[in-house]
Structure formats: structure tokens, C-alpha cells
Design brief:
heterodimer, A: 360 residues, little secondary structure, two-stranded parallel ribbon, globular, B: two-stranded antiparallel sheet, 11 helices
Chain lengths: 360, 462
Amino acid sequence: MFSSCNRIIIAVSSMVLALILAGPVPAKVSGPCSNCHTMHYSQDNSVLDSWQAGGPHQALLRSDCGGCHTGVNSAGGSTPYVMATSEPTYNSTGTESDTTTLAGGSFYWVQTNDAHGHNVASLTGPDNTLSLPPGFDNGRAAVDGSVPGSGSWPTDQQVTCAGTYGCHGSHDKPLATNAIRGGHHHNQGGARVNPGSDVPQSYRFLLGVAGYEDAAWEFRPTATQHNQYKGVDNPGTSATDTISSLCARCHGAYHNDASYLGGSSSPWLRHPTDYDMGNTAAGSPYRDYGGTNNTYQPAVPVGSSDISTVQETIDFNGDAIVTCLSCHRAHGSPHYKAMRWDYAGSVTGGLCTECHSNKD
Amino acid sequence: MPSLPLYRLLSLVMALVLCLSPGAASAGPYAQSAHGDATAGVKRSNLPAAYTRGNCAHCHEQHASIGGSEPVPASGNASDFALFADGFSDTATGPYTTNDTVCFGCHTAGSSLQSPGTLLNHDYAETFGGYDTGTDEGILEVFNHATGTSPSYHNLEDIQTYAASNFAWFDPNASPCVACHNPHRAKRNKAHPRDPSYTAISRPTDHESLWGDDAGETMADYTSNYQAPYYYNSTTTFEPDGVATSDGGLIPDYVTFCNDCHDKDMPTISSTQLGRDLYMIDWDSLGGDNNTAGDKHGANYRTTPNWLREPYASAYNLSCLDCHEPHGSPNAFLVRRSINGEALSATVNDSGGRGNQCRQCHKDDYLVTGKGDINEWKDQHHGRGQDSPYSGRNNPAPSGGTLDSCDCHGASEGSDGKANGVTPIDCEICHHHGSYVPNPNGQWPATVTPKNVPASGYLKTF
């Protein structure tokens, strides 16, 4: 006869198995049109409670970006929530088994602390300290030639989800819905190897950026289930398809040409990105990333030049590339400077030692 | 065989998972270092309060800025290793400023970037020898001693040049200080002067390891003949920190450490301050009295009896830091302000006065008979001493003539085979690292053969 404890264990195990066997969730939206759209922003001459106020919204949508993407993430969820009305569970790194955030983290914490993420218009208030993106150097172009703010960032202009001052879609499209047009309906998920200037082919609608899209948006990621970020071994690269090049569009001073970084090897003037730790000598402390077996660490993700598959282990041959997202959450986190872990509050810098292993 | 209950098995697995979690706490070398100390570690005053003491950001600005601007010190340029300031200014000589190396930005008694604005690090004589004269000083001030006629310091550019040429790991863009210190490992020895496990040094040949903290890395390990000097103002306790033991078990093996650069088998070191190559050190060779023998303050200790002061009445091997400061000194040759429990009687300078160092362990006339003045050495050299190498008359001159005792007291051998003056002889002429007499290539009168020269033809004089 089973004890109640064993029954609970079996139930939990069954749930875990079900999640494992469920397979990837389709990346593109599915279901009836009315899940997202309303033809008249009116039903029986009134606005439904499930529609976001302030409409009608662009593209006949029931709400704007924040309206759809605010919620609580759960296993098997079909909508990635990047904002929440109550504090998500982040634990230490946002990757633990009880967490409810996704790869980008959450904008939730930015509401109360500007230094915890991007102050995106309509989601949070403006940044009270920064009047323009730190490191902004007139912007770098996306693959379609569009540049954030056309190269000029107006004082106190807030970043937006998409468009001229946003991260998703083209910067040449002032309206967010235009900027990411086609993305929700045509995205296939998985490997986005050759995105070109096509939004649906781009990793997470980040125009021209390549990458492998985890079907669960890194909900409780593991070494075998995670996004695979695109990188190249060329610090300060002019490539437009790496995840770090996306950040450089607004924070270019941190990802400028090699001379700005101090060259292509140590001593760096700034922490390098798009640099493969495989350049280090055999026996280097950096080759202790992931421990003895060099297991991929979702909490400290490294990019790769090949994003056709998910890297489970690191062999330091184009798959140990430092990216901006190795340290930061793109949306926000409970930690200072949108760090993935509590860097500022740790003597050793927290998970900095995953790479700087001789300084733990 | 009974099976392991399922819930116990699950608990075990969960415990293992927790142990393997990347967020698991660790206390590695940096967290145990002086800079990473949670209560006394790095804390740059002008950084946002979010950065906890000891955090990387106090020295490294990952984007050469924080929040889009450069916190103090704002040099305007990004620095190597993403440090808040440049590793070294490449200045050829001291005195140094806080801008000459990133380390001095904090390690100064005045205007330190380290909260609360001062960071004290006294010299070796005080920290480990107990000679406290009440002066607040940081490492910058120790390098910049202004008193005395010939203050000396470990020239940073010389260190940079030498380290870059001889140690593959050393990056010439780094602070010269890291040739001897690993900033991510160095411990806070000033707070634990009698515990070598808190050493602050790393051998230039083994940068990723501390030196002095492991078995086999103390002066007692280096030699069983080591004798620690007296602690300041004591004849019963010893360095470091006035301990009762004197076998060197509490002192890092500075001989091995310093000889990573200064050993005779290493490339010659060019000294900017002295304007010549340094005498290289042979602390390990034996050989007694010979021109190829090791230093008599090292393994080749005392071959003939001399008037020695306690605790050196018997033959003993010394440590470099028994006499020298590592960073700087008001005296020439990095000679300590206090040696063997007593302050020096006078400043040691380049043009004499070296005897003020020697008399801390060797008896001068003043200590032997009370008749001579401090730092007079006639009894040691003429007749009444135990050694008396130049007693009586008719010492053989280099030219083949004979010299009276006083004939040595000149600048050179005169045309008549005699010395051409009666000035005092600087100890340094005949007594320096590696010295012996007669030395045909030496400075007068080191070329003169002493009367007690052994069969080898040479008398080892240091």
C-alpha cells in the first residue's frame, strides 16, 4: 500500500513526464482569431472586460503588447508573459525549478527600480536616471539598415517593445504592430538560422538576429532545453545576426570595434562580447565553464556560431561565446542592472566565476 | 536486502541537485582574499551603494562606465582589464602619485578611493617588526619616503620591464605590483602578521598560488639554520609580531620568493635608481671562502668568527626581509628602518653609513669597547678584532708593493703604491651581495689582499 508521500511523488513525476513528452509548443499563434483580435473593439455596444482599455488598438488587436504578455507563466503555457501584476518567482537565477519567469526575465521589477531592466513605455515609467541608453553611440543598424531613432535618441524617450525605439522588428516602422508584422502568424520556432530581414524568420522577432528558439521560452530551462543564442568569435563584430549585435544597436559603446575593446584578446578595455572562450589555452580557468563535463549552464548562457541545435555541452570550438545575455536579462530581473544573478550584492560577483573560475 | 524508501531516495537526489546548483555558495580564493573580504575588502567610495564590499565592480568597470558614465576616478579613457584606472603610467622614476598605478588609487593614506578615504599599509619594519613611529602611511607613501639622503624604492618600471621579459603570464599592461601580488588571492597579512597563511605574496613564477601559506613555504622549511630577528624593543620575542618562536616557521620563505628575480641564475636586473645592474644573489651555494662561494648571510654562513650580536651568536641563515623592505625605505638599498629589534642609529645612504645597517647584528667599535663612535669599525679590521684582516703592516698591494693599514683609506692606489688619501672606507665597497677580496675588478681597496686570506686566495666578505 502506497503512502500518501509516495502518491504525491508519483503524481509529480507523472506531471514532469507529461511535460517532457508533450513536445514543443508551436511558436506561432493558434486558435480562433478572436483570441487576439476584435473587429470593432465593440461587442453589443460595449468593451469587453477581457479587452484592454484605451482601444481600439492597432491591427484590430484586443490589446497592446503588454496587455497580451502580462500574466503568470506556467508549464506548457502558450503565451510568453514578460510582465506580471504580482512578483514572479525568480529564485536566484531565474532558472531554478520553481521559477515563473522566461528567458528575458520580467519587466515587473522595473516598475519599482529603474536599474532592474528596460523602462519600456506602456509597461513601466520612464527612467529617472538615464535620459538615453547608456553607451548609445548614434545607433547601429539592423540588417535592413534601420537604426534605432534613426541615429538620434531624444532625451527622455522611452524604449518601446518594437519599432523605432524598440527591440523587436524593424526600426524603420514607427508602429510596433507594423514593425513585427507577420511574426505572430508565421513564426515556426526552433532554429532561425538565416533570418535575413524577415521578422518571422528572426529569432523572437528581433529583426535579423539568428538563434534557436526554445519552445517554452526557457521556462525552467535545463542544459538540454534552452534557447541557443547566436554569437561569432569576433569582438566588436559588424555582424548583424548575433544576439549581442542587437544590444549594440542602442548600447554600441559596449560592443564597438576591436580597438574600442582593446583588441581581440586580453587585456580588454571592456568586458568582451562575441568572444569565444575557446580562444583560451588548454587548461585555462575559462575552460572550467560548466564544470568537469563542461555542461551548458542555462543560468550563464554562452552563445555559439552554430545555432541549428541546442548545445548540451561545450567543446570550446565556437560554442563558448560570451554574449550580453550571458550576464543580463533582456527585459528585467530582480537584480541590479538586470543581471541574471545578484552580481552587485556578491563579493565574488556571483556567477561571474562560472567563467572566471580561478577567481571564485 | 531492504530497499531505500522512495522519499529518502528523492531527498538524496534533491540534495545532490542543490549541491550542484550554480548558485551554490562557495568560498574560493577571492572571497578569502584581502580584496574580497566581506568586512575589509574593496569598497570604492563613489560607486552606487548597490555594490557590496568586495565586489568586482570596485576595481573593474565592465563597460568602462557604470550607468552610462564613469565614476570617480574619471580618467576619460577605458583602462586595460576593465579596471577603473590604468595599470601603470610607465613613469620611469618616483616619487609616484595615485595616478601612476591603479593600486595606488586605493593604497594610500590620503585621498584613497577606498572608503572611508584612507588605507593604511605600514612598512615591513612596523607591520612585522613592531617599529611603530606613529606615522600613518599607505603603500604609496612607503614607496615615496622623502626622508634621508638616499631614499630607495622598488622601481615599478624596472619591475614591469623585468617581469614582462621573464614571466610569460605577466602582461606588460598590468600593474607592476601584480608581479609579486595576485590581487584576487592576496590575503590581509597586516591583520594577521604572525600567521603566514594570510600571506599577501605570490611568486612571480607561480602567480596563481599564494606563497608562504602551504607546507614547505616558510623560512623554517627553507633552512633549519634560520634565526628570526628580535621583535622591536625586545630581546625575548621575535619577528613576526613578537612571537616566542624564532625558527622562521611563521615567516614566508622570502628567500625563495625574492630569488625568483634576484637569483644568480636569473637574467641580470638593471636598476634605474642605482644606475647599474644589481648584484645577483647566491643564497644557496656553499663554498666557504672563495670567489665562487655563496653569500655568507645565506647557506654559506660564517666561515670565521666575528663579533656578532644576539640572537646571532651562532651561525645562522637570514631572510631577505630581515634587512630589506619590499616596497620602499628612507634608507638606501631598501634597508629597513629597524633591524633586529632596534631602530637604525642613522640613515643608511649611498655614500657611507651602511654600517648603521651592519651594526644591528655585527658589533662596531662602540659596542665592542665603548671607545669608538657608533658606526666605527677599526677594531674589526685592525689588530684588536677577532678577524683583523688588515692588522699590522705590509698588506700586499695589487701592484705588488706593500701597504700599511691606513694606506687603504683613499680613493685608489697611489703612484707610489700607496693609497692616496685617508678617507673612511664605505662598507659597501668590500661588503655587498656576492663580494669577496681581493677582487681584481672591485673598487679600491677591495682589490687589496687581506692578511688572513685563506688558501683559496679569496676571503668571502658578505
